[in-house]
Amino acid sequence: MSVAVRVIPCLDVHAGRVVKGVNFTDLRDAGDPVELARAYGAAGADELTFLDISASFEGRETTREVVGRTAETVFIPLCVGGGVSGPADVDALLRAGADKAAINTGAIARPEAIAEISRRFGNQVLVLSVDARRDPAQPSGFGVTTHGGRRDAGLDALEWARRGAELGVGEILLNSMDADGTTAGFDLEMIRAVRAVVDVPLIASGGAGTARHFVEAVEAGADAVLAASVFHYGTLSVAEVKDALAAAGHPVRRDDLAVAGPSAATT
Amino acid sequence: MGRADDADGADVVVLDYGSGNLRSAVRALEATGARVELSADPERARTAAGLVVPGVGAFAACMAGLRAVSGDAVVRERATSGRPTLGICVGAQVLFASGVEHGERTDGVGLWPGEVEQLRTRRLPHMGWNEVRPDPGSVLFEGLDGSRFYFVHSYGVHAVEALRERGARVTTVQHEDDVFVAGVEDGAVSAVQFHPEKSGAAGARLLSSWVAALPSGGSQV
Which Gene3D superfamilies does this UniProt record tie to the protein (chain B) (predicted)? Predict the structure, then answer.
């Protein structure tokens, strides 16, 4: 009896459209986040993350509209990140239909935003997204970056994760900027190091290439595993990842009830 | 929101008394065939065939929001008159006697004994899909023993035996070594700690069971 390891596909969304190639052959429109979310929901994803990379206000508005349509169609939790800097942004996302918001550079710029958001909505709505990489200049050997890993935030990643949990985030999304895109596996040492300093749930991200990689991330201390490319390109299915986790003795959720899910009632 | 023009389906009101994602709750209920209306009107909440009380965030803030729309009185009256009510997450927690957060105690609606308190676990919040164990005879969890539902909370109720003693059917869940209330069915009032509207097919089945038991509806799916 314990919480299942969550398997979370992540979609990069720009102005309401999925960017990065998506190789789902049976979708009418692989660029539509709602279509993809529905496909992942049907494939057994435990949660979905939209990363809104829109740079403009209009782009974010469009994404919020997509969030609303997703929430009305796919009945699993939805986390949305990108451009979150305070309670007003979180309120807008929750009202649009998101269940959680991920904060990243907004919290680096103004850490007290974390406390403001969790006081108002509870810590369960807030995920601290940490883009970290190996950095010998930091005490722990891991540093925080911004701008997709291109800039050094001047923060120790372990210290930042610990502080985020203390200020009131409900989860840490740990992205390895070294492993991201390599498909060589998660940065297990970094997962272990962050796991040791925070008690909130930890989502591991970056580097997944095989089903075995997900098992390793969980055994290093992750409560949930997030990936983009391996799912989008069809290298791995959510079910294959869950099969590997289950075979290694980790609890997974199987959405195999013999009833029509809510998505069957939508057009 | 809602499909008030549809003639069939049970009449369900989702009580709108604060922020948070209510779209999923409305849509998931609509998918069962119910006619669903999002409303803060106490009169609509009082007369609906089924009332859903959602809730996220802090216990005290939720109680304040509920009182502001006379939701506490409406829920008590519906319990007395036997009209079905379903509390979800913090909307379930506020039905108990009281809640304690950061050392401060707040009175709840008081339908049930028990205090909402922080879970006795290391990993908080309790977040994710966990297995439930319903008491025998549960209507809400029929066919769902051992199914996983989506939980996201740090506080809960441990008064399992006190609830059973007053005749309620209790569904429990375990996180680490802590066992607490996942669901209560007590006459016309039901409550679930998890989010059925976020729990995929299992959640859809539970909501369908609840809607099916409402007066004059539910069979038109």
Answer: 3.40.50.880
B138 vs chain A: nearest CA distance in angstroms?
18
| A73 touches B at CB < 8 Å | yes
**Nearest chain A residue (CA) to B2:** A72
Q: Which residues numbered 106-135 in A keep a CB inside 8 Å of some CB on B?
A: 120-125
Contacts of A117 (CB under 8 A, 6+ apart): A86, A87, A90, A101, A103, A125, A126, A168
Which helix (DSSP H) or strand (DSSP E) does residue A131 occupy?
strand A126-134
Percent of chain B with pLDDT over 90: 87
CA distances from A191 to A131, A132, A187, A261 (A): 12, 11, 6, 35
CATH 3.20.20.70 fits A6-251, yes or no: yes
Instruction: Tell me the residue range of the domain where B75 lies.
Output: 11-212
What are phi and psi for residue B212, nearest 5 degrees? -65, -30
For residue B218, tell me if it sits in a domain.
Answer: no
Would residue B16 count as lying in a domain?
yes
CA torsion sign, A56 to A228 to B24 to B186? negative
Torsion (CA) A240, A102, B63, B210 in degrees, nearest 10: -30
Residue B195 lies in a domain: yes
Nearest Cβ partner of A3 from B24, B130, B147? Answer: B130
Domain ranges for chain A, please list them: 6-251
- pLDDT tens for each residue of A165-216: 999 999 999 999 999 989 999 999 999 999 999 999 999 999 999 999 999 9
B19, closest residue in chain A (CA to CA): A95
Cβ contact (<8 Å) for B128 and A3? yes
Farthest CA pair distance, chain A: 55
